[in-house]
Amino acid sequence: MSIGGASVAAKESFGVINPASGEVFEQAPECSPDQLDAAFASAKQAYLTWRSNESDRRKALLAMADVLMGSAGEIAPIITAEQGKPYSQANLEVFGAAMWCQYFANLEITPEVIQDDESALVQVVQRPLGVIAAITPWNFPLLLAFWKIAPALLAGNTVVIKPSPFTPLSTLKVAELLQSVLPAGVLNAVSGGDQLGAQMTSHPVPRKISFTGSVETGKKVALAAAPDLKRVTLELGGNDPAIVLDDADPVMVAKAIFTGAFSNNGQICSAIKRVYVPEALYDDVVDGLAACASAVKVGEGTDPQSQLGPINNKPQFERVKELVADALRHGATAVTGGQAMERPGYFFAPTILAGLTDGTRIVDEEQFGPALPVVKYHSLEDAIERANATNFGLSGSVWGSDVERASQVAAQLECGTAWVNTHLGLAPSQPFGGCKWSGLGVENGKWGLSEFTEVQSLYQSRTLDGTNPLMALLVE
Length: 476
Ligand code: NAD
Description:
By secondary structure, the chain is of the alpha/beta class. The protein is 39% helix and 22% strand. It binds nicotinamide-adenine-dinucleotide.
């Protein structure tokens, strides 16, 4: 772990499993309560100087990007080993993390002048919050860490980060490497089980919790933050619908929807999780999706031929198995796939499910894996209503040849990001967050940066006697 600028060992450790084999391949440190206290204390101390020099912070972020890019060859294999994704995608994840550092290094935080006259200069400034507790999931262990670390540090905060116990090693490694370009205590990384996350959210030092994970845990985080009125950003789960319109080209759309649903083996919060298709196009879209699912190469992340790896962990593997089995029991057909692959590790055959509708668990719940239900609709109004009839609201997409019409439908989706003729279009400049149970607040862009700050009205009187127009009125 990295605490106060030093590499720190722990008395206890826990096993990290390679999902391609199902075997423990490495041990990770189990942070003790004292070590967590030390991490927060060092972040609190470092904050006192880190907050004061913006230009140093920008330089440090650029240096962090250089370290990440220069160490990709060391970091990417760790991501593949603990997360399962193919090496080329792990490598892209490292470069994505660097890109986020570069973007925030150059994002301006300019005070807004709201009054400038003979009585006062009033500016709205964004101040840092203090120490941030960052908690991340296992699907993009590094990229999602930098969605937090980069804006938090630019704004002048310091950070204690805890990765998922399924994928702790890449974050710990990167934090260790970054100590060479950061003052001690600015970025601390600890690891442990879920209980460590709970200890962080109830710890007195952090002023904000930036959390990415499941809805269930997100609600626990909100509860834990309440007594101390800690700020929270919650990036939670999704059950993203894709609506195919009747003027879509079914073959072209099927290919793109497959990518939107199965990238990272379906383990993306905003991946397509259910597809609504008009009756006339249904068979063609299902066949197109099934052709993609049958052709995609599933294998170990270390095999350069692999396009999809295993599911990351046993509980998630069991969940996907359970949801697919439930759909099949309720009359769905697995046009392709439908079961786990017969090999060690957590491999599941890419699955296209047809002949099912809303009310089936895999349509209503977040599967977060390589299985996609395709649902028929009769009227567009009905499809929109069904797409919105959920507590989730992360993102969604609409597909059709008439882009204006598709955009009008997309605007009716109750979600944080609505795509037209694409899915998963993301950038560091673009705010990302969920409606309803999919989250609270956003990450990325100037909006994400603002969430790591607090607004202060800085009122500078232009008269030395301290009078202002409101005071003058009250005195009269
Ligand atoms: P999870 O909620 O089980 O765990 C996320 C993190 O929270 C882990 O680090 C875990 O150790 C920690 N944690 C667990 N219990 C805690 C507690 N009581 N207090 C504080 N921290 C605690 O989620 P997961 O299984 O790792 O990730 C999958 C979920 O994350 C999916 O629902 C997915 O949609 C969601 N996700 C959302 C986004 C987004 O940006 N909206 C991105 C990726 C993943």
